[in-house]
C-alpha cells in the first residue's frame, strides 16, 4: 500500500534547513550560504523510498520583517506550516530559541501538528552534557514528537531524520512521480544556483539586494548544449560595479561557478551568459517582487 507524508522545514534563519533538505534529497535543490535569509521561496523536495513518498517544503528562515520582501517571506512560512502532516523544526544547537521561533512552536502546539526537533550543528558542540541539557530544556518547553541531534555538514544523523519522517506517513497515493525529486521549474532552480554563488562570493548589503531572472533556457537542436541567459538585478549602480568587478572578473567568477553547478545538475554542457541590471529599491516594490516570482499569491 502506498503512503505519503508532507513535511515543512521551519526554524531560524541560518539554522541549516536548506542544507538538511539537500542532504535528505541528495541533490542541491535549495540555496545554502552562511548569510541569513538565503531561502526566499518555497522549494519542494521529494523523496520516495519503497512505498513511501516524502514531500518537503523549505521555508525562509524566521526573522523580524524589515522590508516588504521579508513580509512576503514570513507569510510563506505561515502558509507552509498550515495544512501539512508534520514539521521538521531545525534549530542550531548553539543558539537559544528566538521570539519568532517560540511563537511558531506555540501555534504548532495549538494546531497539534507533529513537530520533530532537529538539533543541528552538533559538530560545533563539543560538550555533550550541554547538548543533553539543551535537548531536555527544549523538550520540557514544547511537546516535540521526536528529537534528532544531527550535523548536516558531517552527514551525521540524516538517516534518523528520514526514519522519523517516514514513520509519520499515512496510506495515500504518491502525488508526484517516484523518480522526481523536486517540483520546482528548472528555471527557478537555475536562478537559485546563480544567486547562491553571488551570496557566497559577495559580502555586505549587495547580495540581499539581488534577484536573478532566467530570460532563456534552451537546448540546442544540433548538439548537447544548454544555452542559459540570466539577468542579475541589483538595487544600485554601485552594486552593479561590484557584481561585475574589475574588468568583469567578478561576473566571470560567478558565471563559471554557476555553470559548473548547472552542468552537474542538468547533466549537459552549459553555455551561461549573465547580465547585470539595476532596478532601484525592488525589494519594496510589490510589482517587481511579483515579477521575480517571490510573492505568495492568496
Ligand atoms: N558547522 C555546521 N554548519 C552547518 C551545518 N549545517 C549547515 N551549516 C551551515 O550553516 C549555514 C546556513 O545553512 P543553510 O542551510 O543555508 O541555512 P537555512 O536555515 O536554510 O538558512 P535560511 O535560508 O537563511 O533560512 C551554511 O553556512 C551551512 O554550511 C552543520 O551541521 N554544522
TrEMBL record:
Membrane topology according to the record: Peripheral membrane protein
Query: Which stretches of sequence are listed as region G3?
Result: 58-61
Compartments where located = Cytoplasm; Cell membrane
Query: Region entry G5: which residue ranges?
Result: 150-152
Binding-site residues, GTP = 11-18, 58-62, 120-123
Q: Domain named KH type-2: which ranges?
A: 194-280
Q: Which UniProt key words apply to this protein?
A: Cell membrane, Cytoplasm, GTP-binding, Membrane, Nucleotide-binding, Ribosome biogenesis, RNA-binding, rRNA-binding
Q: Where does this protein chiefly localize?
A: cytoplasm
* The keyword Oxidoreductase is assigned to this record: no
Chain intervals for the UniProt region annotation (G1): 11-18
Segment G4: which positions?
Answer: 120-123
UniProt GO molecular function = GTP binding; GTPase activity; ribosomal small subunit binding; small ribosomal subunit rRNA binding
Q: For the region G2, what residue ranges are annotated?
A: 37-41
What region holds the Era-type G domain? 3-171
Which PROSITE patterns does this one have? G_ERA, KH_TYPE_2
For this protein, the record's InterPro entries field holds:
G_ERA_dom, GTP-bd, GTPase_Era-like, KH_dom-like_a/b, KH_dom_type_2, KH_sf_prok-type, P-loop_NTPase, Small_GTP-bd
* Recorded superkingdom: Bacteria
Q: What does this protein do?
A: An essential GTPase that binds both GDP and GTP, with rapid nucleotide exchange. Plays a role in 16S rRNA processing and 30S ribosomal subunit biogenesis and possibly also in cell cycle regulation and energy metabolism.
Describe, as the record does, how this protein assembles with itself and its partners: Monomer.
Which NCBIfam families does the UniProt entry name for this protein? era, PRK00089.1, small_GTP
Give the protein family.
Belongs to the TRAFAC class TrmE-Era-EngA-EngB-Septin-like GTPase superfamily. Era GTPase family.
Which protein, by its recorded name, is this? GTPase Era
Species name: Ruminococcus callidus ATCC 27760
Recorded name of the encoding gene: era
